[in-house]
Amino acid sequence: MLEPGNNSELPPIPAKRYFTIREVSELCGVKPHVLRYWEQEFPQLKPVKRRGNRRYYQRQDVLMVRQIRNLLYEQGFTIGGARQRLSSEEVKEDMSQAREIVREVRRELEEVLRILRR
Description:
Helix content: 55-70%
Distance between the termini: 47 Å
CATH topology: Multidrug-efflux Transporter Regulator, Chain: A, Domain 2
Structural class: mainly alpha
C-alpha cells in the first residue's frame, strides 16, 4: 500500500464506513471525473452504487485510490503500468496467504500424524 512518507500531504481518512465521491476527491487530491475514469481502468476500484447511481466508497477504496494516485502521479507509472503493478501485488499477496495456509495445514497434519503414531 502507500508508504507513510508519500501520504504526508494528504489528509487522514476519517473513521467512516462510506464516503461520497466528493469526499474521496478531497481526501485523495484527485478530481471526481478522474475517479470515475479510474473506476473504468482499474478493476480493483469498485465503489458501491446505490440509489440514483450514486457512488459510495469504502475505506479500502480510498486506500486503493491513494495507491493509484501514488503510482501515477508520484512514481510516474502509466495507467497500464499501474494496473499491472497492482495486479502483480495482488498475486503476491494471494501467494503469501496461500503459503501460510499450506504451512498451517502441514503443521496440523504433522500433529495428527504424531498423535496417530502414539
